[in-house]
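User: what does the whole thing look like in 3D?
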Amino acid sequence: MSERKPKVVGFCCERHGADAVVLTARTGKQYDASVRLVQVPCTGRVDGIHILEALEKGADAVFVLGCLEKNCYYDTGSIEGRKRVGYVKSMLAEAGIEAERVEMFNAASTNAWAFPEIVSKMVEVAKRFGPIVPEGERR
Amino acid sequence: MKASIQVVICNCCVCMPSLLDVDRLIRMASEAPMVVSVRTADAVCDGKNLSEVVKEAKEREVDRAVVLACHKHDVSPALFKSYGRAGVNEYMIEVVNIREEVLLPHLADPARAQSKAETKLAAALVRVVLLKPLAKSSEAMRTKNVVVIGAGVAGQAAARVAAVAGAHTIMIEKTGKSVKAPGVLLNNTQVIGAKGYGGNITLRIEAGQKEEELECAAVIVATGGGWGTLKGPLAKACKDAIPLYKMYEQMQSGSLPSGPVVIVDTPDPTGKTMKVQDYAWDDALETAIDLKKRAPSTEVYVVFQEMRAFGLSELAYKEAAELGIKFVRYDRSATPKIDSKEPTKLVVKDFSQGELLSLRFGTLVFASIPPNKDNEEMADALRIPMTMEGSMRRGSIQRWPVTTPRPGVFVCGSALFPKSREVAKVEGEAAGTMAAEFVRRGAIEFGGAVAEVSQEKCSACLTCIRTCPYEAPFIGTASKAEIRTQLCQGCGMCVGICPSKAIDLHHYTDDQIAAETKVLLGGDF
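Assistant: Here's the predicted 3D structure for the full assembly of 664 residues, as structure tokens:
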């Protein structure tokens, strides 16, 4: 059997986050294919339930990528996003799941090197902890 | 659920470099339920290439589309326009970024890239079925007025340009001034409040003892700079210090400043450190040269942290050095101080030599002035967020340098940061042009992907009202929250934070996001 591929979900804001991803690609940087990007208008839109549902459906790690906090397109959006991620982290810790599986990142739209770093960090987390529920046992 | 989907694959985005098995993508798309048409097209970002696609969409009565191409913002204008001709709502089109999210970053791993592309297509096909058509509404502007707050350099330039472009300009000035710019001038008037949204703003103004209301379509804030916000020890120590423009005016009227002249950076309004100010030094250099030419015996020092003269003005460095003007660059960590024993001595730590220099001065000149204290009140009245430096926030420093986060409100001149007259004038002209363009639209468009409150779930906890940076939510007549669609920017912050889950953001609903996530996680790559 081949090695299990990690599953990483990224909620990415449509503004600087998406621009950073696009710039990463256009500058020819390579990163792990296991990242699944879901576009949201702003990281403030990300609800705890989205992150928890992703973990429930089989994600090993989830990250949220938004604008820089001082330069957020929607003013306070990425600050709200960070709060939301912190809340989910505390819930995971209560449930006995590693809180490191969920992380918030900020990137400027001109920052081409940030995204590959984020992906490699989260893939490493996913590999370290493995699936939350072993494949066979999931309902 | 009934839907007829068209799948369009962009040849230039998906097939170059040839990494993916496009035939398999096409087969997969055509086998998917509810897909009635699968087409490939060259460069979907060009509307001309879409005529065949749109023709087929019309024939098959397509009502939604999945487009495999590149970045959404790059392809969408032409795409939405073309599909609009086929009667497809712009919110029913799902653009999948295959090029920048799959193709380019995974060149080394074609097998996984193929699997990822297929999964993304499957997710888009699921999401597109859940999309709902959204209509945009419009509201006519009641007036063509552009209110310019502040009749300084930037304000007058803005009024002049806006008037040429056909707007009715009204200038509001706190003090009494006579200006040459066209339009109405209200002297001794202050703005104390505002309500409404870009297009139909009602300003509350105070003229003398009277309070009045003034309707306008756009507002240009040009409140300029002032000494009011200056708190630092440097400003306190030398009450006699003057800004550069004042010295320039004095020189024009024939009175030369006494003693050695020190031209120094503008202090930071917070008073902690001197900040690198992002303004042109052209004026400072020019004035220093002028002074040295008129009075060669006067010693002139220019104390700076970072200096940027623009374009050909760089020649002034050489001329100034030849005339004997002394330049002192100081370290960011060591703020120039006034000697505590002798109030006519400025102590500077030279950056290149590392030595402490004490410069005796007769006149201390600040190269520019920091943003005005009125800015804070103005930002409060117009509800514009402020930056840490005490100036108004801009929409985007690179792309829209004279806009604010609120549509229809523009800002220019020293209200942003200290700058020279030339730059202030250019900025004023830019703001005037943008305001005039905004007014000429005649109507504001709003709606689409905005938030909506379902009234029965709302518990009127005010969380959304506190969270929204645009003040869109309010408590309506039914004692439940409502969203003012004209102000909503569609960020969804209130949606994520609502404890009763009463608010939904169109185009990004919870089930749309959840369904997409689920399909993406189902793929094996």
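In plain terms: The longest strand of chain B covers residues 189-197. Chain B is about 30% helix and 25% strand.
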